[in-house]
Design a protein that fits this description.
With 220 residues, this protein is mostly helical. It has one domain. It has 13 helices and no strands. α3 crosses α4. The longest helix is centred in the middle third of the chain and has 26 residues.
Length: 220
């Protein structure tokens, strides 16, 4: 299969595109592992995956700055617009409009201060991060601010870890050299994860007193 990959690249398929597609099974597996074994929830599997790839396009430093700015502005605008008692979709449209305006201001500051890494950031990656505002705000409405901060923090931690993994040059060379092994290995790992029925690591800490009580009862 590596010969097929090399043929695709020789015929004009961008190597970066091929690498990212082959990295996707690894990143998705890391997210699934963190959920099933460690107990880090985050915003499902899609959101941390897409954020990590957005960071690859923008760079981690600027990607984090843009994402945090988007979340802060989105939250602030939501609280301001809430007073007008608008329907959900028009309210979200206003939030997205003002968030987009904020990103334009950020680009203006980047152009003025000569931050070339910022102003050359991929617009598609930024648009993807902007569209995640709706998910963030919906979680705020349904689960409250405290729970939203926890889930968002977990999502960002996962995204940063996946960014580091996906940008690892040695691993990129490995997926190009052994693409079939990477894909099959990811599928096998996920099958094993799907059959996991034990406690997650976070649950061991959460229910530590209960576990100790049960163990002491058995000894008694």
């Amino acid at each position: 299969m590596s010969q097929i990959i090399q043929y695709m690249i020789s015929q004009g398929v961008p190597q970066e595109t091929v690498v990212l597609l082959l990295m996707l099974p690894i990143v998705a597996t890391i997210i699934a592992f963190s959920r099933q074994i460690i107990g880090i929830k985050g915003f499902g599997i899609y959101t941390p995956l897409i954020i990590s790839f957005a960071f690859l396009a923008t760079g981690l430093k600027y990607g984090l700055a843009i994402f945090i700015a988007i979340l802060l502005v989105g939250t602030l605008v939501r609280l301001l617009v809430k007073k007008f008692r608008l329907l959900y979709l028009p309210r979200m449209a206003i939030v997205l409009i003002l968030v987009a305006l904020t990103i334009l201001i950020v680009f203006l500051e980047g152009a003025y201060s000569g931050r070339h890494g910022l102003i050359s950031a991929s617009i598609f990656a930024i648009l993807i991060m902007i569209t995640l505002v709706e998910k963030f705000i919906a979680t705020q409405i349904n689960q409250g601010a405290k729970r939203t901060i926890i889930i968002t923090s977990e999502t960002l931690i996962l995204s940063i870890i996946c960014y580091w993994v996906a940008s690892w040059l040695w691993l990129q060379n490995m997926v190009l050299a052994y693409p079939l092994s990477i894909i099959l290995g990811s599928i096998i790992v996920n099958i094993l994860l799907g059959k996991w029925t034990g406690l997650r690591l976070s649950e061991y800490f959460r229910f530590q007193k209960v576990i100790k009580h049960v163990e002491s009862s058995k000894k008694g």
